[in-house]
Write a structure and sequence with these properties.
- Keywords: Signal.
- InterPro entries: DUF3238 (IPR021631).
- It holds the Pfam family DUF3238.
- This is DUF3238 domain-containing protein.
- The chain has 454 residues and is mainly beta.
- A hairpin with a 3-residue loop joins β23 and β24.
Length: 454
Amino acid sequence: MLIYTSNVKGGDFLNKKVLVGLTSLALVFSAQTAFAKGGELETEIISNENTITLDWNGTGDKYEVYSDGKLLWKGTESKYVHKNLKPRSPQEYDIVSYENGKRKEMVSVDTTTLPEQRISTQDVSDEDMPDPLKTEEHIDSTINDNVLTLKLRGKIQDDFDGKIEVYKDDELIDNNAGTTFVDDEVESGKTYVYKFVVMKKLSPAEIEKVNEEFENRGQKLSFNQVKDYYYRPYEYIKAVKIPEKNEKMNSLAWEPPVGPHSNQIGIKYRTFIPTKYAPAKSIITGWIGQDKFGGDNRSFSFSGGSHRTQTEAVARFTSSGSTTYFKKNVNYTKLYDKNGKFKKQRKPTDKNITFTQGKKDKSMDYFVIKHDAKVGFNDFGLATPSIDYTAGVVAYKNGRVTVSGTRDQAPSHEMYAYIPYSDVMVTLFRASNKGFNYLFPPMPSAKMSINIRL
């Protein structure tokens, strides 16, 4: 069993958030605690493989605990233990307090049980396959009166300077946060995507390979580049709806890889070059001359514009089980001269973009997408890097989606979850191109861990 407790720490942004609306309250911060503007209801979350314990402070004389709109428990005690749960199963709760027969306040909780110590998933034998069912890290969230508290739990440690960065909708809002973050600048009816970024140092062998790569290029690694090349970013992402509100998605010139059905969840992953052109020598080591590869010349988009590669998977749930549909697409690599005059094009192979089915049943569907895509041609036998990522996805019938895996930090990457043939879509992450040198194997990839509910 793991019990997480910590102090909230952070920069000016976090200090301001805690002070607004809470200046009259003396609060003890625990790892999974919800705070309300003027409210008093706080809860601690204690998780193990098969149970979740909610232990809250006594703000009333009677309490009720709900999950998915169903009453789980009611009584006068300020503690509830949810038993007989599956390992690594997401859970949502609403704790309601009453005083003198009248409803006083409510706190909403989003958490998960811990993974089983030894778990096997059928048809997926590769030890390197990312599996969200095994991931210990998770972001718990509690909401009380439009105050959101996020708690990143698991084995979390920043190796660079001990500081954790927190992003809200891709905007850095705290560069010195702890594992607990409070945001009271949220609005009902909106969806927010939060990202905790922790830097983990590469192994000595990996660092040596990075140094060798720079030496082979005749370059020296500067002090300001140490963080970028000696450390791997671990990204923990969670989308929170306050309350649920659907986002519109552009569906022009795009169709899901499967027809309409009453219960299905889709995943889309796109890679693209945001500029109109990219110097060929910036992508292929040893390329001589001023030739350019064509880019996609766009910003982030669910379905608009072109892409280098795109993969999609849809999990369909029925009364007898679940079925997964997979689709992949790669676009032509186009070569231009230094003046932008078209020279030739060639379509890359998609044989190294693969789908592997894992465990699935009537309530969940686990699969892995492995992506290894090169440029369309290489006439001179030079080293050609690949766009690599591996995403392990678990889609749940109730709309929950969890993702874990790794990705290159070039070019731009974006990932979405959606319900086919509807306007329901959530951005899982959007990552800008950090530089094409990140396509080469010695350079650190990024780790991702995502948890959302559609």
